[in-house]
Amino acid sequence: MAEKILVTENVRLYYGEKEALHGINLDYRKYGITALIGPSGSGKSTYLRALNRMHDLTDYVTVTGTFLLNGEDIYAPNMDTVQLRKQIGMVFQQPMPFPFSIYDNVAFGLRTDGVKDKAILDEKVESSLKAAAIWDEVKDDLHKSALSLSGGQQQRISIARALATSPEILLLDEPTSALDPVSANLVENTLIQLREQYTMIIVTHSMSQASRISDRTAFFNQGKLIEVNDTKKMFLNPDQQMTQDYISGRFG
Amino acid sequence: MDEIQEALTKTSKATKKDRFGRSVSLLALILILAVVISIFWFVASKGLATFFKNHVSLWSFLTGTKWAPGQVDAHGKPLVGAAPMIVGSFLVTFLSALIATPFAVGTAVFMTEISPKRGAKILQPVTELLVGIPSVVYGFVGLTVVVPAMRHLFGGSGFGVLAGSMVLFVMILPTVTSMTVDTLRAVPKRYREAALALGATRWQMIYKVILRAATPGILTAIVFGMARAFGEALAVQMVVGNAALMPHNLMSPSATLTSILTQGIGNTVMGSLENNALWSLALILLLMSLVFNLVIRAIGKKGAM
Known about the structure:
Number of strands of chain B: 2
Largest sheet of chain B: 2 strands, antiparallel
CATH topology of chain B: MetI-like fold
Distance between the termini of chain A: 33 Å
Largest sheet of chain A: 6 strands, mixed
Distance between the termini of chain B: 57 Å
Helix content of chain A: 25-40%
Order of helices and strands of chain A: EEEHEEHEHHHHEHEHEEHH
Radius of gyration of chain B: 25 Å
CATH topology of chain A: Rossmann fold
CATH architecture of chain B: Orthogonal Bundle
Strand order of the largest sheet of chain A: 6-7-8-3-9-10
Keywords (chain A): ATP-binding, Nucleotide-binding, Phosphate transport, Transport
InterPro entries (chain A): AAA+_ATPase, ABC_transporter-like_ATP-bd, ABC_transporter-like_CS, P-loop_NTPase, PstB-like
CATH superfamily of chain A: P-loop containing nucleotide triphosphate hydrolases
Shape of chain A: globular
Structural class of chain A: alpha/beta
GO molecular function (chain A): ATP binding; ATP hydrolysis activity; phosphate transmembrane transporter activity
Largest interface: A-B, 25 and 18 residues
CATH superfamily of chain B: MetI-like
Oligomer: heterodimer
GO biological process, one term (chain A): phosphate ion transmembrane transport
Low-confidence stretches of chain B: none
Protein name (chain A): ABC transporter domain-containing protein
Number of helices of chain B: 13
Strand content of chain A: 25-35%
């Protein structure tokens, strides 16, 4: 059993008074893809955003529970969220390149870290774009606006941008749901290539996607974690009846 | 059967209403267009008379530094050099925009990014209030506060380009601020999230992403402010000194196109050279506001790409 890179215990989240996550226990081994599936409103995205403290941006959200990244408390008062978010990168549902050039987009995280050396930037931008499987498509137009690319390319730029700061964990919030099937497929292939080197947690609405790319799958429903299992077992022979019902499309 | 046919071939009530609405708005459009065209026509015909009727050369008008319509120089040519006013107008405009921009952007960032709640509660009404203050009040405050302050700080009379710029700076600040606020609010919230998720600090997010994404809008806001400053007459006239002389430093009393216009237009006879020369100044003002408009459009187009 590989070491645990991220441990979450008894995660509860409140929107004001209302409890939206009811005690989630879930931990992650190093490397590989964990897919979080479940119907809309099941809390999977909410849970994902708690992992890199994105809820800090919203006033009325309270998060409780234990979050340990390599044994360190993510929600410790002295935790530097800036450093945390360099370690736990995130890719959003909508491809969100900044309105700058491709190069500046990918170099963004490094520059905010204070990297100024052109050689290091060049090398990191290239390796990140290669890792995100988009280097060949954009290598001649690195100084073109990232907004001129197609949706699928933009999303892979977003992935490259997140990879540039060498995060240990990559959170992906429905990264392909805004893309057409061809682009989605390219992004999926990118993720599959990355799973040897990164720990990825992906929220997805597509069960076929979860079954194609993930090693482990967690099923959320109504703010509860119903079941977590190896993806193969989950889709062939889940432990819970509710999981079976969801996967076979009987609700959700 | 006939009833149905009749009902179908007759113009329906909705169509009539539609036609009525369309003609009303078309009429309004034609009216506005007529007003604009006649203003242009009027100002241009009067303003160009200086050159065609009074035979002042355009070059000497734009570059001459002596403004004394009614008097003639050694060659018998009228002394209508508008350069001091043109320079004065541009000086106060650019200076006030230069001072206003950092304040406006700073205030806007505070209102939208740093403290949106207090910003909306306190600063929003304050900026709106500033827009509504009549310019004569600004001029009066300039006269009683800014001019003496300038006198104490830099000596001289206190009247001059700098005093004019200070008053204009306060006047255009709310315009530039509120337009910058709108631009910053229009930057997608996702940019903020994406920047923070990449481990940017809040300040890095603001100046590396938000201000950069908002640059075309901020430029538009500044040009709007400049257009306002360029056209402002009363408040500037009260503090700028109104001496139609080429300003040789920021403290020297000078004049702007607008201040000479408001001063002189009532004291000249229609059709005379003195009067026509003032219309030429008005024509320059009009053309400049056109230029400002074109610049704003150009920026908007570039920003949309």
